[in-house]
Amino acid sequence: MNYLKITTAALALTMTLGFGNQLSAQNMMQKEKTVMVGGAAMYPTKNIIENAVNSKDHTTLVAAVKAAGLVETLESKGPFTVFAPTNEAFAKLPKGTVETVLKPENKALLTSILTYHVVPGRISSKELAAWIKKGNGKYVAKTVQGEDLTFWMKGKNIYVSDMKGNKAKVTIADVNQSNGVIHVIDTVLMP
Fold first, then answer.
1. Helix 59-68, helix 107-115: angle, nearest 10
2. CA separation for the pair 162, 115 (Å, rounded)
3. Assigned fold of 35-185
């Protein structure tokens, strides 16, 4: 009989602890206001690189960041606002473009393209929308690369245009990071 009581008590304690751990994880996710990107939770307590490597939709971007030697930069304090093209966005580029820019001899070009997707500071979609309204329908921001991006809205959606006239839609906004914010876009921007 004592054995049965001990086993039942141990089972109850295990279930309570297990359930408690599950609640703690759920509470942490709710507290952190995670956003799902590429099938993975993006945690505001992790930096841009720590989150991006988990997104199945950003494997090309992560490979490009590694090839350009920008991992340390995007792990640093920042803050940065990153307009992150998806794998589908990279696939829209002319055939062979990605393979060409990933070659070591094209590192400067790759770095230029990637830093063109980064604006200094932490800029939320709400701030972008307010600045667009203040700017009579557009807002221009200087990128880390040195050239401008132009932001505008169509309905409630935010769009960004590069210097060549390419247009990208922000498909997932406000993916907060410990060192900035990511806005997922559907087109690669070109300086």
1. 120
2. 13
3. FAS1 domain (2.30.180)
